[in-house]
Write a structure and sequence with these properties.
Layout: H1 3-34, H2 48-81, H3 84-98, H4 106-139, H5 147-178, H6 183-206, E1 213-215, H7 220-231, E2 236-242, E3 253-256, E4 262-267, H8 273-282, H9 286-296, H10 310-325, H11 328-350, H12 354-358, H13 368-379, H14 381-408, H15 412-425, H16 434-440, H17 446-454
Parallel strand pairs: 2-4
Antiparallel strand pairs: 1-2, 3-4
Length: 463
């Protein structure tokens, strides 16, 4: 491969992938436009008013997604075509010299490049994010943020992201330059440790910087969740409710932690208003929080969605715990680690190949971080696309298995009710183009999940 083939091949694949994604989006947009009446097969799970609202929400998101995707594609193509990486690297060198370092100090130069790249990406994404939150999400009743809260949150996320990522950039460059012929093994080990460390500290030390986590107070819900966990030997350590309602009314639940230190987190938007009110009242900071919300703008638009009953919450958690019991999390970690090793092995064989850098405007320099960026973002782009689709298919298989696990626990009916209610609360459109859904949806569509739960022959598999 010469530099010309690498350069135009990268742009060519970016274009082909964009056209494919645009085609899929167009197919789904047609589904939104053509299904104006509730299809017969979904009348049992959704009323006409909710169907109309979810259709309008889907149309708005679809239009915006296609327009934003086209603009971003033009920006990304222009960035590559006009050697944006080269000029950003040069600007990073100037920044390094301003703070008293020579541009030949590659680690500091790479840190500056990473900072500028993240800053530029954040600024360019800002208009799209603002429109999505304050026009589309606002229009359909999901956005709970004011501009003040939004920008403060964005700044905090950027600073925390830089504080985490920049030391990692420095360490990666150092390992590659000093690790010898087997640096890719050391690099894989380092990144693995970083991933495990972040999985450990993020919920306890990073996530609380952005959202309030409150222990679930004693009561019927807590007792039943603890009983459910004990029935399948899930080593539950703590139960939390996260105050997701201060930014959005979308709902969720998840668990985290290693070994015998597991936590379950429920979004307050997942719960019925009566249960969520008990949690707010139990918080010792309840009054102070209300006053704070008036000042910073969080808590805007207090309209509450339906939420799930206790039995429905238990059914949803039965599904989530099914992922743990069936080792889905462990399997995903193993796949991630194997993929990382392969990526670094490929990088090891390519990062000294001069045309790789020349193709993107680096005629004299061969910076490690730039090489890593080019290999991961452009050279391996086809592989990453295929892998992403494969992981989507695997995720759907895992979701069916977790539903079947919850069914085995006796939650079939409540799981169906919970899934329907969550879909209504989140204005999930019940009709999807099969190709769009297969490519994009890591979770099967609602109708497929309900059909699988109703299938008497379906059994729990350990995959």
């Amino acid at each position: 491969m010469n530099e010309t083939f690498i350069f135009y091949g990268s742009i060519g694949f970016m274009t082909v992938e964009f056209l494919w994604e645009s085609y899929l989006s167009y197919r789904q947009h047609k589904v939104y436009k053509e299904n104006k009446e509730v299809p017969k097969e979904v009348r049992v799970i959704i009323d006409e008013e909710t169907f109309k609202k979810s259709r309008e929400y889907g149309l708005d998101r679809s239009w915006f997604g296609m327009i934003a995707g086209t603009i971003k594609q033009c920006i990304n193509t222009a960035f590559v075509f006009y050697w944006g990486q080269k000029y950003l690297w040069r600007a990073a060198g100037n920044l390094v010299q301003l703070v008293g370092y020579g541009s030949e100090c590659e680690i500091v130069h790479s840190i500056a490049f990473g900072f500028l790249a993240n800053a530029v990406s954040t600024v360019l994404d800002l208009p799209f994010s603002i429109y999505n939150n304050f026009v589309i999400e606002e229009k359909h009743g999901f956005n709970k943020q004011t501009y003040g809260f939004y920008f403060k949150d964005k700044l905090k996320k950027f600073l925390v992201s830089e504080a985490i990522s920049l030391p990692i950039v420095a360490s990666v460059v150092w390992i590659v330059k000093n690790g010898g012929n087997f640096f890719f093994v050391y690099l894989w080990g380092f990144v693995t440790l970083v991933i495990l460390a972040l999985m450990t500290i993020y919920p306890d030390y990073i996530a609380p910087l952005f959202d309030k986590y409150t222990p679930l107070p004693d009561g019927d819900l807590k007792a039943k969740i603890e009983s459910l966990a004990a029935s399948i030997d899930f080593p539950l350590y703590k139960l939390y409710v996260v105050e997701g309602s201060k930014r959005s009314s979308h709902s969720n639940a998840y668990f985290y932690g290693f070994f015998k230190n597991k936590r379950i987190v429920l979004f307050d938007t997942l719960l019925e208003e009566s249960e969520a009110a008990k949690i707010r009242e139990a918080s010792p900071e309840s009054e102070a929080k209300k006053e704070s919300e008036k000042q910073d703008g969080s808590g805007k638009n207090e309209t509450k969605k339906t939420g799930c009953t206790t039995d429905e919450v238990l059914a949803v958690l039965g599904h989530e715990l099914g992922h743990w019991k069936l080792n889905h999390v462990l399997k995903n970690i193993i796949i991630t680690e194997a993929n990382l090793f392969l990526l670094f092995l490929v990088f090891n064989s390519l990062f000294k190949y001069k045309p790789l850098y020349v193709g993107f405007g680096f005629d004299e320099e061969t910076p490690v971080f730039i090489g890593l960026y080019i290999v991961m973002s452009y050279i391996l782009a086809p592989y990453n696309t295929v892998l992403s689709f494969g992981m989507t298919l695997l995720s759907r298989r895992f979701e069916f298995a977790a539903d079947a696990f919850a069914k085995k626990l006796g939650y079939a009916e409540n799981l169906k009710k919970g899934l329907v209610k969550l879909s209504k609360d989140n204005l999930g459109f019940p009709v999807y183009d099969w190709l769009f859904s297969s490519w994009h949806h890591s979770h099967p569509p609602l109708l497929q999940r309900i059909a699988a739960i109703d299938d008497k022959k379906k059994s729990v598999k350990s995959d």
